[in-house]
Amino acid sequence: MKAPHEVFEAHNFDSEDVKSFVKFAREKKEIVRQAAAKLEELPILQGHDDSLLTNKRKTQHFYSDFINRCRAKEIEDSITDHTSETYRARFHSNNGSFAGAWLFNVPTDKHSTLSSRDFRIALKLRLGVDFHNLLTTCCCAQRELIHNNPATHLFSCNEFKPFHLWRHNSIQDDIMQMAQHGGVRAIDAGLSRLTEEDGRKGDILFPGFGRNGTDLVVDICIANACAKSYVRTACDIEGHAMSQLENRKIEKYQHAYQNVGVDFLPLALEIHGVTSETFKKFIRRLATEISDANDIPYCIALSYWQRRMSTTLQRMNATILRSTQVKISRRLGMMREVDLDPNDHTFNDRHTSLHDMTA
Fold first, then answer.
1. How many separate helices (H) and strands (E) can be counted in the chain?
2. pLDDT tens readout for residues 270-280
3. How far apart are the first and last CA of the chain?
4. How far apart are CA 178 and CA 276, in angstroms?
């Protein structure tokens, strides 16, 4: 199996079938070896192979991991070398199981369903496909150019903060519902009375849910990795935008809540779906409570709520995008409705209608 090529060719096999089998195995093992070499992990592969006489468990998974990670690295290197900062920031912001959970949802109720229009908008945002029918200029004071990629400006412009708040509140509602299903007390009103800082308050209070049995306040924050203030670093560092926002929340709230004996957590994510470890850990804890309270498997509870929140995020992204176009049109006196539903168009640059394609 490990002999040099000339030795293999000169070897006298018992049959052609045996020779074909060994040749096939050698070719596949060479693919694994090359993948390990590209990852600079040949010693790890060799160490595993040396232990095969005593431990043969999960070898297929071990080899597959090299191949899959090598392929992922090739894609990442290609994106790093040949794409724009915005493209790379969006690529990083799409990473993780939460970011793609909405794609695996079964549309059985209103919480797990996206309309065809919203699904297409969410998909185009995920893939970075151009929106050819966006209004070209924003209605903000700077009259920023929008181009064909709405994530660059429309999801970070202060002109549309009320729309961004809709998305925030929808995620907050899902967390409240999750707590209710788990029998966990959750309060989202009157929190400004907890601290001495006027106007400073988190989003949800969980009595007794913090460290050492203290009360816990969480604050939800949603960042845009493609925004001008983040993109130059977010294109190289996954989660940079949400980490910066998370740190600002900690600076704003943590000390004030500590002074009154209340624990604090920022729950950060980005508009394309990548989620902070703190957020994921918190969701897993609520899923455990739901599992125990309703006698259902933990994995089912976690999967459902992960997909539900991911779907909520994408539905609200689509709602925000459609709403920005209506506001811009009215503010700039454009007497026309803006149709973001790409039902009549494919996603290519020629913008060919589906009618022409099917005719």
1. 14, 3
2. 999 999 999 99
3. 57
4. 18
Residues 77 and 38 sit within 8 Å (Cβ to Cβ)? no
Q: Looking only at Cα atoms, what is the longest distance across the chain?
A: 86
Q: What is the distance of C-alpha 14 from the center of its chain?
A: 54
According to the model, what pLDDT value does residue 200 have?
66
**What is the model's pLDDT at position 59?**
84
HSE value, Cβ hemisphere, 13 Å, CA-based, for 280: 12
Task: For the chain, give every domain's residue range.
Answer: 5-82, 99-331
- For 177-195, give the DSSP string: HHHHHTT---B-SSGGGSS
The type of residue at 25 is: A
The kind and range of the H/E element at 92 are helix 85-93
How is 139-183 classified by DSSP, letter by letter?
SSTT--B-TT-GGGTTTT-GGGHHHHHHHHHHHHHHHHHHHHHTT
pTM of the full structure: 0.78
Which residues touch 31 (CB under 8 Å, ≥6 apart)? 67
Query: For the chain, which ranges sit under pLDDT 50?
Result: 342-359
pLDDT at residue 199, rounded to an integer: 58
Q: What are the Cα distances from residue 223, in Å, to 196, 245, 275?
A: 27, 7, 10
